[in-house]
């Protein structure tokens, strides 16, 4: 027998309440007096308990819904009614999707194993929706950690039947986030979609009685207000926000003055991605935990520009690589690191760790933020290998394909703000590294050369370093070495 789950009597002077938290879901077995749902008013939180042993058949009012006293918010099937519960459950959004994928084997879509030291991850983007056909190894969803983005692919051909963890949810390794019905087709999906559309057209499903009453008082229809509640339900707050925007726009529209009418001023609040939060934390850590100082110099880029102009076509044809500036920068930095080992070192507690290898982090701008993948053993790479390596890292960064191994390590960082037009900056250290080199925009400037003024393509260099390990003499000498090598690139090629 089906028993109604109702909102209890509300305290005096309280007109309505909000469904705060459901502690059960359709199909769950419950016992008499078990707390099923919390109802929140502006004064107290009320617990609604099970009137008898049984199974939850249907949840009518989702979390966030505004409800009245004695309003029916769910149904309980009394006794061992597990078989009866699924019949009532199709009204729930979660049950509609699997119906579109009948006739196949249910396979779990799980979060992959996370990198070491990564405790959890965030669902970034679902690329398919319930009811859509998928093919084996098709990317279904991107999982974002604070270091890399992991792709989760379909385990077989079939239909995505269910999404269990929505975008923005925090998940752990091996957690089930969706269901794929292997071998199923999407033929049944339109039926489920049409049923969902019919539900959305029904005002009683989209808004509770209190909300419909508020809409009626202001001459509004449910369709006039965008719902932000679960399943697109319209909440009391949605109506109030709609009314406040409408009232704010009215004075401007009614103003008799000939001044131009400004549109609505809107704000958009978006949660930080994990990568952005990690970047923020690390930048703050670098400022607070190091004795950071920046020294500057400038370099005449004409010799390198002349060399590129002369050999770039032949270089590209021979090595299938573009002869850019970054190859020269990396070569010059590698040579300078050999001469100044303190700059290639790092602090570990009370020890200084000198690295006898040359792994250089290259700052790459991606849609998710700035990342610093590592180009390893740069002392063993040719100019063409450096250019190809940087290109590959940049493409992987843009497409979110960088691996954890490519992101870890690095003894020194090069960042090139010049590609965005930056003339001068003070780059922030990339801990535990001790120094970072900022390259900038190449710009023609009048320079004094042998007593005469010449217009030369000049670029500012900025070296930020940790003064705890690198003294001023070493930092200036390091930067001057880079300047000398870039102004006479033949030294790089001849190893002088």
Structure description:
Belongs to the 2-oxoacid dehydrogenase family. Residues 2-77, 106-181 form the Lipoyl-binding domain. InterPro entries: 2-oxoA_DH_lipoyl-BS (IPR003016), 2-oxoacid_dehydrogenase (IPR050537), 2-oxoacid_DH_actylTfrase (IPR001078), Biotin_lipoyl (IPR000089), CAT-like_dom_sf (IPR023213), E3-bd_dom_sf (IPR036625), PSBD (IPR004167), Single_hybrid_motif (IPR011053). With 496 residues, the chain is of the alpha+beta class. The protein has four domains: 2-83, RNA polymerase II/Efflux pump adaptor protein, barrel-sandwich hybrid domain (OB fold (Dihydrolipoamide Acetyltransferase, E2P), Beta Barrel), CATH 2.40.50; 95-193, OB fold (Dihydrolipoamide Acetyltransferase, E2P), CATH 2.40.50.100; 202-254, Irregular (Dihydrolipoamide Transferase), CATH 4.10.320; 274-494, Chloramphenicol acetyltransferase-like domain (Chloramphenicol Acetyltransferase), CATH 3.30.559.10. It is built from 13 helices and 27 strands. Strands 17, 20, 23, 24, 25, 26 and 27 form a seven-stranded mixed sheet that branches. Strands 1-8-6-3 form a four-stranded antiparallel sheet. A hairpin with a 2-residue loop joins strand 26 and strand 27. The longest helix is centred in the middle third of the chain and has 19 residues, at 236-254. The protein is elongated. The termini are far apart. 33% of the residues are buried.
């Amino acid at each position: 027998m089906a028993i109604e789950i109702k909102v209890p009597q509300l305290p005096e002077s309280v007109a309505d309440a909000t469904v705060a938290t459901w502690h059960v879901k359709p199909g769950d077995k419950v016992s008499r007096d078990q707390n099923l749902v919390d109802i929140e008013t502006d004064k107290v939180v009320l617990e609604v308990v099970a009137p008898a042993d049984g199974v939850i058949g249907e949840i009518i009012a989702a979390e966030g819904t505004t409800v009245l006293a004695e309003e029916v918010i769910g149904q309980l099937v009394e006794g061992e009614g597990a078989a009866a519960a699924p019949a009532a459950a199709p009204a729930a959004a979660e049950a509609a999707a699997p119906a579109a994928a009948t006739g196949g084997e249910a396979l779990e879509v799980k979060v992959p194993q996370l990198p070491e030291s990564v405790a959890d991850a965030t669902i970034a983007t679902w690329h398919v929706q319930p009811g859509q056909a998928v093919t084996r190894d098709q990317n279904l969803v991107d999982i974002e950690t604070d270091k890399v983005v992991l792709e989760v692919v379909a385990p077989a051909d079939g239909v995505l039947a269910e999404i269990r963890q929505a975008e923005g949810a925090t998940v752990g390794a091996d957690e089930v986030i969706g269901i794929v019905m292997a071998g199923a087709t999407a033929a049944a999906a339109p039926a489920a979609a049409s049923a969902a559309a019919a539900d959305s057209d029904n005002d009683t499903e989209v808004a509770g009685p209190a909300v419909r009453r508020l809409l009626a008082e202001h001459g509004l229809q449910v369709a006039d207000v965008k719902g932000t509640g679960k399943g697109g339900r319209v909440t009391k707050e949605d109506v109030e926000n709609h009314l406040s925007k409408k009232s704010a726009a009215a004075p401007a529209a009614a103003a008799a003055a000939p001044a131009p009418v400004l549109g609505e001023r809107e704000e958009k609040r978006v949660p930080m991605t994990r990568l952005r939060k990690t970047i923020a934390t690390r930048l703050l850590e670098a400022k607070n935990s190091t004795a950071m100082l920046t020294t500057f110099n400038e370099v005449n880029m004409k010799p390198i520009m002349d060399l590129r102009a002369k050999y770039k076509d032949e270089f590209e044809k021979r090595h299938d690589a573009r002869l850019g500036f970054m190859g020269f920068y990396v070569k010059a930095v590698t040579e300078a690191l050999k001469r100044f080992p303190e700059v290639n070192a790092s602090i570990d507690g009370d020890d200084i760790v000198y690295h006898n290898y040359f792994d250089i982090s290259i700052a790459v701008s991606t849609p998710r933020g700035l990342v610093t993948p590592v180009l390893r053993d740069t002392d063993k790479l040719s100019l063409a290998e450096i250019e190809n390596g940087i290109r590959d890292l940049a493409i992987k960064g843009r497409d979110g394909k960088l691996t954890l191994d490519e992101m870890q390590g690095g003894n020194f960082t090069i960042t090139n703000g010049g590609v965005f037009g930056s003339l001068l900056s003070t780059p922030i250290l990339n801990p535990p590294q001790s120094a970072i080199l900022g390259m900038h925009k190449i710009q023609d400037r009048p320079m004094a050369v042998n007593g005469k003024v010449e217009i030369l393509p000049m670029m500012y260099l900025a070296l930020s370093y940790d003064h705890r390990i690198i003294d001023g003499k070493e930092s200036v000498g390091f930067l001057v070495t880079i300047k000398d090598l870039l102004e006479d690139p033949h030294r790089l090629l001849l190893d002088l």
